Amino acid sequence: MPTEHADSNRGVQPPLITFLSDYGHLDEFVGVCHGVIARRCPRARVIDITHSIPRHDVREGGLVLRDALPHMPPGVHLAVVDPAVGALERRAVALRTVREERLLVGPDNGLLMFAAESFGGVAEAVDIGRSPERLEPVSATFHGRDIFAPVAAALAAGATLHVVGEEMAAQSLRRLTLSVAHVAQQTLTAHVLRADNFGNLLLDASPQQIAEAGLRRDAPLWVAVGERRYPGRYASTFSDVPPGELLLYEDALQMAALAVNRGSAAEHLGVGRDAELQVTPA
Amino acid sequence: MPTEHADSNRGVQPPLITFLSDYGHLDEFVGVCHGVIARRCPRARVIDITHSIPRHDVREGGLVLRDALPHMPPGVHLAVVDPAVGALERRAVALRTVREERLLVGPDNGLLMFAAESFGGVAEAVDIGRSPERLEPVSATFHGRDIFAPVAAALAAGATLHVVGEEMAAQSLRRLTLSVAHVAQQTLTAHVLRADNFGNLLLDASPQQIAEAGLRRDAPLWVAVGERRYPGRYASTFSDVPPGELLLYEDALQMAALAVNRGSAAEHLGVGRDAELQVTPA
Amino acid sequence: MPTEHADSNRGVQPPLITFLSDYGHLDEFVGVCHGVIARRCPRARVIDITHSIPRHDVREGGLVLRDALPHMPPGVHLAVVDPAVGALERRAVALRTVREERLLVGPDNGLLMFAAESFGGVAEAVDIGRSPERLEPVSATFHGRDIFAPVAAALAAGATLHVVGEEMAAQSLRRLTLSVAHVAQQTLTAHVLRADNFGNLLLDASPQQIAEAGLRRDAPLWVAVGERRYPGRYASTFSDVPPGELLLYEDALQMAALAVNRGSAAEHLGVGRDAELQVTPA
Questions:
Q1: Which of A136, B10, B192, B216 reaches 20 to 30 Å from B26, CA-CA?
Q2: Nearest-5° angle of CA B160, CA B163, CA B167?
Q3: C32 and A71 in contact by Cβ < 8 A?
Q4: Is the full-model pTM beyond 0.95?
Q5: What's the pLDDT tens digit per position in C144-182?
Q6: In a 3-state reduction of DSSP, which class is residue A138?
Q7: Surface of C (251-270) touching B: CB under 8 A
Q8: What pLDDT, in 10s, does the model give residues A158-171?
Q9: Which run of H or E residues covers position A222?
Q10: Can the peptide bond before residue A2 be classed as cis, meaning omega within 30 degrees of 0?
Q11: Is B39 in contact with C1 (Cβ distance < 8 A)?
Q12: Which chain B residues touch C251 with a CB distance below 8 Å?
């Protein structure tokens, strides 16, 4: 980012916490976590990434976190999508990434790991399930309030990982696997990573893989879902094709995506998350 | 909360305002109130507890406020659920609690009183309907913007209650009554205080009352709604029972609650707010 | 606003950015823009006016912006409702208003212009489509993140318009036209500017025009929609009429509006945005 006319008057910056969850906005859960943070670290500034992760969808939360963090200032990154809250075998963790020393706080269910890997992996991890920062009594159902938010706030206030938790082996952290797109014989085989709220389908394929499959910008193509084939076009943006027409494009994350101009690719193709599809030049 | 590794670098804290309402997020009402606050007290920090209180549900708003405030730093607590906005007989008030000297601002319809009572009651109250802090002309429909937000901001900026309103008798403040659970002959008679968005039913019974009724952790029980009886279990958390099974548990507020693991207790029992039910050991 | 007991302890204020969009809260778009702003201008404080503008409804966004800005502290006002994002012919702009020197940032589709006009018009405008502040590579679909948010943050950090964009003629900015109410022969002909989420209909008529049409407070009236006529009353607030009855009133923006007490005027009259209707004394 340019710094020539930068913010010279800034002084000491407040510590930053970003917050992502599946709590939604119908209840007071998010607000209560903000209060808990403000009590422990009044100086902290909190940026809500989103609280609309589909309930209990750990993989979706992990992908959104990974894709959002590069746009967030370095700091403490709190994330809670936690279907196994209260279960003994689910650990609560805080970790530091290799690059940029970002601090991630959340359940040990894979949620944090796509983001951690995109910052060079985990340099250090602690188990915070019995953190001295916990709010007692710890409830069985609201660890966001009782464990994750207070630990994030303590880290923002300057506490070290060793103070808020017990050392654990980074290799023991749970990881999720993702599908992998591949190219063979001018065919790109890709999978739907996410379907957004407009029916756009985000794929696991890169622009390099699109090129390897022989797909050319502005040229027609076929998208196959099982036995069905749909005509489309490799375009730059929605308005490059007529309304109702399917397009392959690079989305805002610079990954392959499918959309229908003024429509829904999910409905058009009749597919959702995890679907496999083949793309070939027409 | 632990303070050993506390936030020593904090300096002067900005004044804090918490904000709860039934305005929802479909309109700009919440944002406009934030702007009004920022104009009057630019230093103030605002924490949104929730704006998803069901429209005009004063009791629900009052219960959420009561349960959230212990997690909020002391400060000014603005709350607006105001079905009688604009009516002459509805007063607008600001008050100070006995414990922690919290300042509560909102309509005089009972909304503030559960919270006030949980902080030892009202030490002092003023009528702010004709506050010099009002934004003129005061609209008939948006007192959040024209009266409550500017008064809350003035208090955050250091104004006293006497400056923002006219003294009134704390005894004249309107109060709402709540149902009371009771135990007799190994039967806990309780009522639904709130039904949350997952169909969990929050009751007016305490863990002590559960114990008095002879209910034991991990033991089976009956829940009766009128003539109907449903089997269940007194458990610690959802995953202690199979999917679809009813459980009685202590919720995150340490009160009795009913849930169905991966389901809705409200649908399962066919009841909602204010329903009376009996719980007995099986 | 009164300043007698003003905020004397405030010190240097952080720069302020307000943010309005049609991004909604189901995705992480708003959170990502907050992150981008915090990276470029960590001191900036952001007030979200609303993100629930109906998708792609530029006029609605422009009206909400115009009506909200007087309640916002002067600063940078970021607005994104951008159906033509990525299209070459749609310019991205930043401008300074004549009164209060407010800085508005958004697409050049009319969105900013109602607000600009209410602050005395445009003193200076720049094209920011190729701003040095852009995040590269600029996506085709998310200019909020890649152009508008970073430019708004740079302005908040003290950059001048000339630094963030290329000078352009203010007269070339796109404007939207609005319907105009008029009075003739004791008939007020007005149009629905907005229908809010409760079915209240905001009209383009002023209290002066209501008076010119001979309508008197607390007196009965007729509302005609084409051939249909509906009885109503000119009242101060909802509760002045019985439930289910139609009323004409001055809304919180001091403009004429129609409502049904505890009901929906939109449903009652069977009309929505842009509908024309006649109001006459009964």
A1: B192
A2: 95
A3: yes
A4: no
A5: 999 999 999 999 999 999 999 999 999 999 999 999 999
A6: coil
A7: 251-252, 254
A8: 999 999 999 999 99
A9: strand A220-225
A10: no
A11: yes
A12: 139, 141
